[in-house]
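Why does this matter for the project? Reviewers at the last site visit asked to see concrete outputs rather than summary tables. In response, this paragraph embeds two records directly. Each consists of the residue sequence and, immediately after it, the corresponding structure tokens. Nothing has been edited or filtered.
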Amino acid sequence: MESLNKNGVSTTQEPGQEKYVTFIAGAFRGTEYFQYDYRHTDGELFSTVAKTLEECRKRRDEWLSRKNALLTYNEWWRMLNFDELEDITGIEQDRDGNNEEDTRFIDACNLFWDIKTFEEKTEIYHSHIKQE
């Protein structure tokens, strides 16, 4: 049987490359499945298993859409000023110009953002954009 892995590492290494193999899952009475890998241009690997190649590609396209939206949200997040960050996070900023305190404020805001799910980031982004 052909494999997409060698020593536990995907053989799909080229950016923008997709690879797939079919296999029969014995536990499911001989149903054929596609194992699918796609290597994004940024190096991240997307993998899935589905009954059709079309379903694998649909899942990849949905993943790419979420990934692109997340890039947009993260770019937006990095452009917010201190007052906007304070409004969104509820974390009070230090207003005396102390760089050490400013750094802690930014770190706390970034932690607030980093632990949010994609859905929560989407909601925050859209609710803030509506206010502008």
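We now turn to the second protein, recorded in exactly the same manner.
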Amino acid sequence: MKTIWWIRRDLRLRDNQALTAALNHGDQVIPLFILDPTLQQSGYVGPQRLAFLYAGLADLDEALRQRGSRLIIRAGDPVEQLARLVAATDATAVYAEADVSPYARRRDRQVAAQLPLYLTDGLTVLPAGAILKENGEPYTVYTPFSRKWKSQPWSRAILPAPEQIATPDDVESLPLPAEPALPATVPFVPGEAAAAALLRRFRDGLIYRYSDDRNRMDLDGTSTLSPYLRFGMLSAQTAAAAAVEALQAAPHAAARKGAETWLNELIWREFYQAILYHFPEVLGAAFRPEMRQLQWVNDEALFDAWTAGQTGYPVVDAAMRQLAATGWMHNRARMIVASFLTKDLLIDWRWGERYFMQQLVDGDPAANNGGWQWTAGTGTDAAPYFRIFNPTLQGQKFDPQGDYIRRWLPELASLPANMIHEPAKMSVAQQRQYDCRLGEDYPAPIVDHHEMRPKALALYKVR
């Protein structure tokens, strides 16, 4: 019997429940990826993430070929392409990992209405709809969600990658798209092996300093695994199991705190996937109804300065240029630039959410939306609307010597640590001394943070 393993966000052979189910069902498995024009042409998709996906598919194809199989590529409407492949191969089942986005669930319902589609878990450690209150309602606050999550049993046994996968020789396949190609500036090697190596490196050392270092933009203090989790090159269960393993092996209390903090971050990912599952409307509107009528200013010139990293606030500009160059941004930086956009520039969080999705290699609808709504104060477990980050103080605290800023803003590289966070305060003589002229080499601040804070508070109070 032939079965189809429909690959979507699970570009891996190890710990893949959909692949395992397909192998258990039939003696021949067809690994299929469908180039879906609805997703490829979405205004929320950018070239760097597409390039990372295509490179990851090429890596998966190579891993399959080493096992006697190969990746089958089709393009077009998923319902039509699956129906054609089922008819051409007499496949008796289609297995896929369940997703939570509104489009994915709608697509899967359409497929299931016509074909024998079986969905497995695997996007998250625990199924997105599994963590509920005693009354059956979903959680909308992270802390009680995380307590309930931690109380639930889950197996840390990781499914091995199959040694052999038999695939019919006569199934036609399109070539993988050659463009967009992955830029050399993107610092992530695509594929399952690269993800496993990164996880080992993090688990064996960096995780124990994670609690102390994770907010420092100038340090190598995070796992940088988010792109791999986004495309399932690493399973959520493998990551969580590594966190628990590190927690149990921690040599002292500070190390345990580091491992526990990273596990909590993985649970944040679970939480946001659950929110999108239960409340799909968050992709287009504030979760909190009272926040849906905020009168944003939405100045396009200010938005363009923000996207270009030309706001005159060094930590904001460094972060935005890191994003444009690499397709990634430190999580503390994401909060800083999101707060600046919404509460200093008074621009709708949805503008930033969309721009991030166009740029981020790890752009995930649930996590990206959750992060933006948290910072904007419009979401489920939101920061209070009156919490407004001071970008200068944030830079001084989390990039104290200015090393992060110097890396991404070479025009400020010569400034000493006591000036680099506030170049606008330089005298004319100091501008000449450090060869950095305000308004020429680096912009003056496009807004005054201290003037914008009361305006932001007024905007939110009028809701």
